Amino acid sequence: MHGVKKSAIPPTAQELEQKKKQVDSFRSLINGLLAKREQGNMNPKILPHIGIALKYNPEHYTLWNYRRDILTDSMSQPVTEGVEAEAEGVDGEGEGGGVEDANVSAVATLTEELGVIEAALAKNPKVYSAWHHRRWVMDHILARSGAEDRLAIVHKELDLCKKLLTKGDSRNFHCWNHRRHVLTLLTRETQGGRERERETAAKTTTIPSIDMPLTLALIESDFTNHSAWHQRRLAIQQILTERESETSGERETVDMEFELDNLMSGVSMEPDSEGLFHIWYWLVSTGLSLSGCVGAEAEGVLETQLETYMPLYEDEPEHRYPLLMAKTCLFLLGRQAEADALGADQAMNTHWRLLRKDLSSRQ
């Protein structure tokens, strides 16, 4: 895969026999585990055996379900959130202490579970059931952790996602989706909880401050990384739509000319990319005004964009999106008749009518 040729040397009889023994052993292990699940056996001592099977074959979703069943059964104590416990005066003594001890034990078990999942992902980082299980584990760890621990747990998970994306497959959409879920957890932690903790977290971290450096690094290493482009657009949108900071009264800023110039590098490499076009379209139709780039300044940016994409269309008229970019710039510059006249392909005109309607509604 990816240019790596398989060995042309056939396996020896001894290697084939050893492989057969491994397969037979694995099949026996799987059958035994499935029999225990059918019997309703929820003994936690089974978990290490399931872990061995999943390390060998992380795509066996039934075994991931079995792990969740056992973990759920073993954590039967009611969950008390750290913030709620503090509000109710729980201090670790008496009845409250029993619940707290149960939560501490559950968090320790679930933290070990994260290691099991990492081992499975090391074998195959694109297994739906493994990522689904990790999300479930993360949610339960946070539900049972105190307020002072949750932010650190979320940041540790973000560090893992960063490692997988920068050192492994930077287009792994499973990892990107999981990371977006973790970012929502970060938002919850920085916007909720006790006021002092919320203010401290807000001063030290924001989602754009995490996203912008990571996505830029990934894009600069591969301008065709659509996943990184998409996440960067979301970060830019958040920066531009957030209210003024409660602590400093200042807004984070976005250099829109830099963003558009950077995007041009991706479009020049993939002029037929619909994803890159939609990111560009949002930047010029919405992002410019949100960033405060209006009037003559915005016209200057649009003229530059027109000068960029018109030649790209003229040199290679078979590419759809440079043409739509040129038409969009003309329309936003008030040159609607020129925009409508540019390009004569029927399918293109149908696409342009939809964009024209959307542009008109934004004005």
UniProtKB/TrEMBL annotation:
Keyword Cell division tagged: no
GO molecular function: protein prenyltransferase activity
PROSITE patterns from the UniProt entry: PFTA (PS51147)
Listed Acidic residues bias regions: 83-94
GO cellular component, one term: cytoplasm
Any Pfam family hit: PPTA
SUPFAM superfamilies the record matches: Protein prenylyltransferase
Keyword terms: Prenyltransferase, Repeat, Transferase
Family: Belongs to the protein prenyltransferase subunit alpha family.
PANTHER family for the chain: PROTEIN FARNESYLTRANSFERASE ALPHA SUBUNIT/RAB GERANYLGERANYL TRANSFERASE ALPHA SUBUNIT
Protein name (Swiss-Prot/TrEMBL): Geranylgeranyl transferase type II subunit alpha
Lineage: Eukaryota, Metamonada, Carpediemonas-like organisms, Kipferlia
